[in-house]
Amino acid sequence: MEATFWHTRWQTNQTGWHERAVNPLLITHFSSLNVPPGGRVFVPLCGKSLDLGWLLSQGYAVVGAELSELAVTQLFAELGMEARISEIGKHKLFRGKRINIFVGDIFDLSREILGPVDAVYDRAALVALPEAMRARYAAHLKAITALAPQLVIGYEYDQTVVAGPPFSITADELHRHYSDGYALTPLARLEVPGGLKGKCSATEHIWRLDKRPSYLINQTQTSS
Fold it and tell me: How many alpha carbons fall within 13 Å on the CB side of residue 46?
């Protein structure tokens, strides 16, 4: 999916994926990650999500990656923060109190530039990418976060009825992308009120991904 698609959506305010409240699955299940007080949480393709403000309110540090500078400008305005802006690598870095957002292509973000993270919260990244890009994204995310534990929120629905994004992500696909490095635990499944875009029934699901012990990773690689 081309970057111009997302830039156009933000410029024309076609941001139907932007939730008007903090995601209740985040509130209910984030504690299961056991992130230490003040820990650093990475939110890929974060937009201006209200979830970022909730994480800050819980005392965590937030680091995000977002393609649209407009979205990040709006995020800081809504947080009531004045961003300090610098350039690092191919990204602009917007910094505030306990929050850093990298503006640019997430595939240009390295582990060295991102820095260490204690957890990943993926509500809008994997589901935003077409199938051809999702394997690349998952591999890149594992590499730059050193297999930090994740909460992943996705949807399942009939993709022939409604075209994404958000795209339908099945349990099988999650295991295909992540089971080499993670143990996957389903936490909850909820019917989407009114269906997806009001056109078809859909289920929202949340998974916790925990890094496998190194010996399990080695066993998996040996058997593959």
Answer: 33
Contacts 24+ apart (CB under 8 A), 194-198: 195/157, 196/155, 196/157, 196/162, 196/166, 197/16, 197/162
Residue 141 · residue 152 · CB < 8 Å? no
Q: What is the pTM of this model?
A: 0.88
**Domains present along the chain, CATH in parentheses:** 17-223 (3.40.50.150)
Tokens, residue 195: 């269906």
For residue 116, whether the previous peptide bond is cis, meaning omega lies within 30 degrees of 0, is no
Sorted by sequence, the CB contacts under 8 Å of residue 4 that are 6+ apart come out as none
pLDDT digits (tens, 9 = 90+) for 110-169: 999 999 999 999 998 999 999 999 999 999 999 999 999 999 999 999 989 988 789 999
Q: What is d(CA 61, CA 63) in angstroms, rounded to the nearest whole number?
A: 7
Print burial letters for 162-194: b (CB count within 10 Å at least 16), e (below 16): bebbbbbbeeebbeebbebbbebeeeeeeebee
